[in-house]
Design brief:
- The chain has 483 residues and is of the alpha/beta class.
- The protein folds into two domains: 264 residues, Aldehyde Dehydrogenase, Chain A, domain 1; 184 residues, 3-Layer(aba) Sandwich (Aldehyde Dehydrogenase, Chain A, domain 2).
- The chain is 39% helix and 21% strand.
- It contains 14 helices and 21 strands.
- The protein has a seven-stranded mixed sheet with strand order 15-16-17-14-13-18-19, sandwiched between helices.
- Strand 6 and strand 7 form a beta hairpin.
- Helix 2 packs antiparallel against helix 3 and helix 2 runs antiparallel to helix 5.
- The longest helix has 30 residues.
- It starts with 8 loop residues before the first strand and ends with a strand.
Amino acid sequence: MSEFLSDGLARNYVAGSWAEGDRGAVIAVEDPGTAEHFADAAQAGEVTLANALESARQSFERGDLADMQPSARGRMLLRVAREIRAIAAEGADILCRESGKTLSAARDEFEEAALYFEYYGGVADKIEGKSIPLGSDYVDYSVFEPHGVSAQIVPWNFPVSIAARSLAPSMAAGNSTIVKSPELDPIALALLGKALERAEVPAGAVSILNGVGGDLGACLVASSEIDQIVFTGSVPTGQAILRAAAETVTPSLMELGGKSAAVVFKDADIDGLMASLQSGIFFNAGQVCSAMARVLVHRSIYDDVVERAVSLADGLRAGHGMENPEHTPVISDLQLSRIEALIATGEREGVRVAAGGVRLDRKGYYWAPTILADVAPSARVAQEEIFGPVTCITPFDTEAEAIAIANGTEFGLVAGVFTRDLSRSHRVARKLRAGQVFVNEWFAGGISTPFGGVGKSGFGREKGLEALYNYVRTKNIAISLKG
């Protein structure tokens, strides 16, 4: 057991201190690779939340971050990055065991978290306003100010990196922040509190709470003390949060998942496509909001692509994340059952299960890498987010048809184009309804590229310089020089 879990319990990080759960309540955390109990997280309730809200408000009113010299704020974020790397080995072991992902992916997640703090640490002193000419009788300028207290609800698929993705720009802008961790795998995220503590982030400026979404999360977003809401997760939960935000008129940033399509033309590099398919739908057992959930293939190469995809899926080695296998479990038995139900629905609709389509016969929550072929665009499996190692392959005949199918869901997070034709890649990319389009490599881009969706994939942007402006509000100051 790690030092952080010396007694098997991960505590809440509140006002610079470590707190037990309300009335000693805990959340039992499983290892998805074994379906066995791993550790416990102290469950925050009303008392812990009230302490976090009070300390966040006090920190903001004191100006702990907002009034700090921007360059000093940047240096503080760089210290956090260094401390994240110092805990990365311990944290990766925890994250692997509680989330089911590979140990190498868990290490990469901590590294990505550190990179977010470095990136936004480098721009903390570059959030600049502007002067607006109104003539010789006026001086007019705009400045950016932090919202105040930012509530951030983090999903379970990438808890550490997604928390850092929002927390770093929030801190860079001068906000106080309360992070609500996912109840399925809260422990590695709780460990980030250790990095904040060691980096001497002012007490109260950041709290990390372990709690149940329908309880703690609902109370958090409904609080009148919250000045901004940041949420990554499912559409139904996002809609519930937006209803609560409407009552308090709280600005919100939503990333709500997707059903993203890759459009594969007949001149595509099939080897490159297969490499993208492996990372695009089988990485993290397909539990990625921007996964390659649909593959639209020109009919002239359709059979070849399906055959190659089946060979890829059948050849992936499954195992516990600590073994760094090619295929890992999904997060829970509930998620496994949901995948199973959707596949059964697809089969009733005439979808062909070309590979996988079953639970793996081993301890833990494993679903076989699955290729669904001959999928009609209207099929439920082509319209709903499965959030598992399952992709749907559909043929098309014309460019216009492919674009229509790709745009034919309620989502619009990412999309892909696979072609050697440069003109076509630009033309199709412009017509795809998505916040980000990958050309010839799924997941191209990085922490500096804006990320977010349209439609039921949400609104606002994370990552890159553009994300900073979600964490500030504009104030204009107009001064009359008359008289």
